[in-house]
Design brief:
Structural class: alpha/beta
CATH class of the largest domain: Alpha Beta
Helix content: 40-55%
Shape: globular
Order of helices and strands: EHEEHHHEHEHHEHEEHEHEHEHEEHHH
Largest sheet: 7 strands, parallel
Oligomer: single chain
Number of helices: 15
Number of domains: 2
Distance between the termini: 19 Å
Length: 393
Amino acid sequence: MNKKVDIVYVVASELGSIGMGSAAYSAVKGIDKSGKFSYKVFCRGHKKNAQINKKNLFSYGYLEYLSYPFRFLEKKLRMNINSFKFVNYIFGKKIYKNLPKCKIYHTWMGISPEAVKKAKKNGAILVLEAANSHPMNRLKILNEEFRKFHRDEFLIDPKRQRENIEYMKMFDYILCPSDFVYDSFLEENFGKEKLIKMPYGVEFEKFNLKKDNPDKKFRAIFVGSIQLRKGLQYLLKAWEELNLRNAELVVVGNVWPDGAKIFNKYKNNKTIAFHGFDSNLKELYKKSSVFVFPSIEEGSALVNYEAMASGLPVITTFNSGSIIRNNQEGFIIPIRDVKALKEKIKYFYDNPKQAEKMGKSARKYVEKFTWEKYGERLVDFYENVLRKNNNLY
């Protein structure tokens, strides 16, 4: 392929799915809607109802099936397997082979270093999506947690992280979805000129303020995989110690291998409802009183945006990458702080009107962070980069 395009966007996910698939889909929709750029997208498939120009896609949806045996072993046998390592290897080879020349090459962390080098050699401006904090910050936080809970088999290899750092040094810009991510790169001596704050978004219209809680029970809800990184172990301990009357903690998410012991410890607590993965989050949010997300390491967790759009006050950490303002849409607490979790949950338990007030504030504030506006911010960034580099489209 010899024709040069303005933008190549690369994501190792299904466009329109959850997590990075949501962010990537919104990015591609923003690029397409602007009509300002020629572009190509490399992805691992897309939702059937995806509203994008499929002629611009290199879509390798069949690769998802190759990960299924590894996922089965992870889930059923609680084995520590990187289910996407082999799949991403093949995906990377496909990108490298079919990569067109481009002005901007935008990719997520760890995907096809060979293709990144090829794009750089061809003169592209390299943009990295930092979905998590700096690798050394991530290593420090998570390895502390694994050691604390005697899960040394999950320790992150420092050598691999140093390889990731060398990989990141090739990039001209790093998009940081939160202050937590931005600060972590600053602390590792990445220059401010390379770091761009780019918060994520939410499908605002999908959620609403309407509540559906006929039994009048106080419900705190957590949404996220059951793993040590998400900080659920501290929330479960806080909840059990609170022992609130007519109250329930709703936990939505699949059990990861490193979180299995935590799940087993609390699975018989009748005040805790473990739902597993549930795509119908809207209904669960409607029944809830407060959203609690005490993660110890994120980029910018999308569930925080969703809870806000649902009119819920949020108790979370700075490390979750949340956009909430402390004491306005909820509370930002330190990581690993059971006492703070108990205090803030009890506050909303005792003050339902204040919970409602903060929830309404959250709903209003998150309007600034829709996926459509995310796409517009990204397009503005592309324009500024091309203009700055005298590489006008």
